Amino acid sequence: MSTASHALPSPRLVRTAIVLGVLLIWEILPRAGIVPSLFLPPMTTTLQMLVVEAPIYARHMLVTLQEVGIAMIFACGGGVLCGLAIGGAASARQIMLPMFSGLFAVPLVVLYPLFTAWFGIGSESKIIFASVYGFLPTLLGTAAGVQTVDRQFLIVARSLGATRMQKLWHVYLPATLPTVLAAFRLGGALAIVGVVVAEMLTSTAGIGFLISKYRTLLDSPRVYAAVVLVLVLAIAFDGLVQVLERRLGIAQQQSGRSVGKRSVASAVA
Amino acid sequence: MGLKAVVSSPSPAFSTDESGAVEVTNVGHVYETASGTTEALTDISFRVETGRFISIVGPSGCGKSSLLMMIAGLVQPTRGTITAGGRPLVQPDPTRIGVVFQDASLYPWLTARSNVEFPLSLRHVDHKIRRERAEEALDLVGLAGFADKHPHELSGGMKQRVALARGLVQDPPILLMDEPFAALDEQTRLTMGDEVLRIWERTRKTIIFVTHGLSEAIHLSDEVLVLTSRPGKLVDRVSVDLPRPRSFEVMGGRRFEELRERIWQRIRS
Ligand SMILES: Nc1ncnc2c1ncn2[C@@H]1O[C@H](COP(=O)(O)OP(=O)(O)OP(=O)(O)O)[C@@H](O)[C@H]1O
Ligand SMILES: [Mg+2]
């Protein structure tokens, strides 16, 4: 390890260098006149907007954050719980999974106008839309994870007197934690996308609303500033999930056991 | 069946204690699957007195695991009845019957200690008592210093010790073991056999031990039940009248060879 680090820079260093490089190009291209600044305002001009217009951005960011937060609770919480429940019961799995997979294939964005018709153009329609948008992949991911749980784990739990709920909580959840977190990550990211897109389509507040509004005014720096905020939000969420993964010690879990040994197993679990 | 007559126990101390007695009466089991039915066991009857060490041997697929699962309450027999401690078992009860499976069935996300505590936490046993009992059980299997290790940090033998501790932690009068050492190397298997004997002598539990090893069965047990296959039938009960402790001389002696030969003949018939 230590000898190799002489030859190769750490991945972290390379990543930082790439990000700095992109930022630099972002600054240089418009300044040098290679790209018109209407298409791409310089980095410094954009970031300056965030400072100058801070109160406005803050106010709208707060709206977006609130919507995203609530949507994530529904999307991730609901998705994980329903995924566990559906994936854990053979009959529910057979009936419901194809349905949800089918639903997932529908581009929900085209239905958004309906959501505004039903729930108005305020926060409610965004929250509900984003919840549904993030819910499906979270559910599907979790349910898929549950199906890969080693049957022996369940037999042992039964032999130790675990109830149905205890099996879900003490076996399915920890056994599927890596998959669940991956599903949570995807669902959360989609909830963010859902909220911002919904705000861009029809709304009166939120970062998405700002993007739409400034775009119609051809105010590129303000549009880009808002986009930067969305990026920051997405990256912050991702970082949070990573911290969570590390905390829960996903790395040290290695279940090196064969899956699905066909024997008395299938009759028992 | 006539077999019962052959049986009569050579053990001088005949216990009247029912708590560890297992009674299997005319038990049969048929698996129904999409591809048809398999008659795994037919008309099995035997009784095991409290504190006895019984082994079950038989060719692969003769239903040894199925029988054990039924005694554990994990699978319901399609015919006949089973009682443990004088009462029928409608569902697994780890305070009456402990089960040790072949492959390390430990939960990889829990430490050795938490794995042993697991059945206690399912019953909401107080944290302090849980600790004490787990400590005691780990001590009994000789793993006192490894409580905080995760399964992947333990050798195969140590993992089975943890599984044994988990089966013993609620001090059930009956312990079922399904080829617990089959995945271990010869040397470790011998050590583990002695370990089980030591624990048996200390705790005087009823042990029903499934194995493929005829020598192992003779070495450990008071009596060996021989099953044949398709469908599994009890064809012989061989009392092992070798003195304990069974030294290397005894194990190499003529009587041992006779017993081994007899069991082998019965399996092949
Ligand atoms: N869940 C199941 N569904 C259908 N058939 C099964 C199931 N489990 C076991 N069987 C069948 O029942 C018979 C007995 O199986 P069992 O696992 O009890 O045998 P075993 O004696 O433990 O075998 P081994 O020595 O290989 O462990 C076999 O023919 C097996 O194919
Ligand atoms: Mg078996």
TrEMBL record, chain B:
The keyword Transport applies. Keywords: ATP-binding, Nucleotide-binding, Transport. GO terms for molecular function: ATP binding; ATP hydrolysis activity. It comes from the Bacteria. Residues 22-254 form the ABC transporter domain. SMART domains: AAA (SM00382). The keyword ATP-binding applies. Belongs to the ABC transporter superfamily. This is ATP-binding cassette domain-containing protein. The lineage of its organism: Bacteria, Pseudomonadati, Pseudomonadota, Alphaproteobacteria, Hyphomicrobiales.
